[in-house]
Amino acid sequence: MKIAFASDHRGYELKEYLKKHLKGYDIVDLGTNSKESGDYPDYAFKLGEYVVKNNCLGLVICGSGIGISIACNKVKGIRCAKVNSIKDAIYTKKDNNANVISLSASINKERAIKIVSNFIETKFSEEERHIRRINKISEYERSN
Questions:
Q1: Is the C-alpha dihedral spanning 41, 61, 70, 76 positive or negative?
Q2: Is 0.85 topped by the overall pTM?
Q3: Is there a contact between 59 and 69 (Cβ–Cβ < 8 Å)?
Q4: Residue 44's pLDDT is what?
Q5: 83: DSSP letter
Q6: Residue 91's closest CA among 124, 57, 44?
Q7: Could you tell me the end-to-end alpha-carbon distance of the chain, in angstroms, rounded to an integer?
Q8: CA 63, CA 80: separation in Å to the nearest integer?
Q9: Superfamily of domain 2-143
C-alpha cells in the first residue's frame, strides 16, 4: 500500500522516524528534506495533490498538526483529520473515510507509529449514513 508523507521543518524528525519504523508500506516522501525552515502549506498542497492523483493515503506533520491539516483540506478531494489518538485515527477512517491524517510534531513517537498503523489498516465502514455525509461534503466541494 502506498502512503505519502510530508512535513514542514518542525515535523521533519518525526517524519523520518516514522519512515524508518513503519514496515510493509510503500512510503513516498514529499518533503521537507531538512530541519531548515519551510512553509507547511507548500508541503500540504503537494501531498494533497499527490494523494488525489494516486488514490493513496497520506500523512502530514507540522508543529501542532493543525495548520498543515487546514492547508491539506483546501485541496479538492482531500479529507484530512488532525488526530491525537488511536481512536481518532480509527474513527476518521471508519466513519469519514479520511485519506490523510495530520499529527503534531511533538507527539510521542511510539504512539505515532500506532496511530498511523491503525489509520492505514482501518477500513471504511461503507455504512449508508457515512456515505451520505461524505457525498454531501464532496458535492459542496464540487459546487463551490
A1: positive
A2: yes
A3: no
A4: 98
A5: -
A6: 124
A7: 32
A8: 16
A9: Sugar-phosphate isomerase, RpiB/LacA/LacB (3.40.1400.10)
Q: Find all residues with CB under 8 Å of 53, minimum gap 6, and list them.
A: none
| DSSP annotation string for 8-61 | -TTTHHHHHHHHHH--SSEEEE-S--SSS---HHHHHHHHHHHHHHHT-EEEEE
> In the chain, where are the structural domains located?
2-143
Report the C-alpha gap between 99 and 78 in whole angstroms: 6
Specify the long-range contacts of residues 136-140, CB closer than 8 Å, at least 24 apart: 137/79
What does pLDDT average to in each consecutive run of 10 residues of the chain (144 residues)? 97 98 95 96 98 98 98 98 98 98 98 98 98 96 94
102 in Cβ contact with 51 (< 8 Å):
no
